[in-house]
Amino acid sequence: MVYKYLGLDKLDCSVAIIQNAVSRKMGRKDILKIDHSDYDINLDILGYIDPDITVSIIKDGKTVEKKKVGLPEQIVDVVRCKNPRCITTVEQGIRQIFKLTDPEKRTYRCIYCEAENQGGHV
Questions:
Q1: Which residues sit opposite 117 in a β-bridge?
Q2: Most buried residue, 1, 2, 11, 98, by CB count within 10 Å?
Q3: Residues 33 and 84 in one domain
Q4: Digit-coded pLDDT (tens) for 70-106
Q5: What pLDDT digit, counting tens, does each position of 33-58 carry?
Q6: Are 122 and 48 in contact (CB under 8 A)?
Q7: How far is 75 from 31, CA to CA, in rounded Å?
Q8: Residues 15, 32 contacting (CB under 8 angstroms)
Q9: Which residues make Cβ contacts (< 8 Å) with residue 104, sequence separation at least 6?
């Protein structure tokens, strides 16, 4: 599912997904390798799925940057509003925008109708 949300299915390059790789710090981790130097990954999607994620940028076999992602303040077109009366379900072309309202519970709310969505559920 992450593959689709990040738009990796549209890339014309090598993409590798490794699940449950051994990690000294975390015990287990997932690794996503994208062999495309110009690909701009949407960190908001990753932060919504797992705010504790770390993204490492590797060039020529060396880590050149590490980013801690965290919960995004707003997510756009990542999840759909579940409220059948929301304008986003009636009108086409309206972006699905959710604002973070409770970071502790990872709760997001639709900016149009205030319907709730829990982080990590794409």
A1: 108
A2: 98
A3: no
A4: 999 999 998 899 999 999 998 989 999 999 999 999 9
A5: 888 777 777 888 889 988 888 888 88
A6: yes
A7: 23
A8: yes
A9: none
Q: Coil, strand, or helix at residue 106?
A: coil
* 54: containing domain: 2-68
H or E segment and range at residue 15: strand 15-23
Is 107 found in the same domain as 79?
yes
Same domain, 50 and 79: no
Instruction: Tell me, letter by letter, the H, E, C secondary structure of 49-99.
Output: HCCCCEEEEEECCEEEEEEECCCCCEEECCCCCCCCCCHHHHCCCCCCEEE
Find, among 110, 105, 116, 115, the residue nearest to 95 by Cα. Answer: 110
Query: Distance between CA atoms of 103 and 27, rounded to whole angstroms?
Result: 25
Place of tokens 């303040």: 73
Rounded CA Rg of the chain: 16
What is this structure's pTM? 0.76
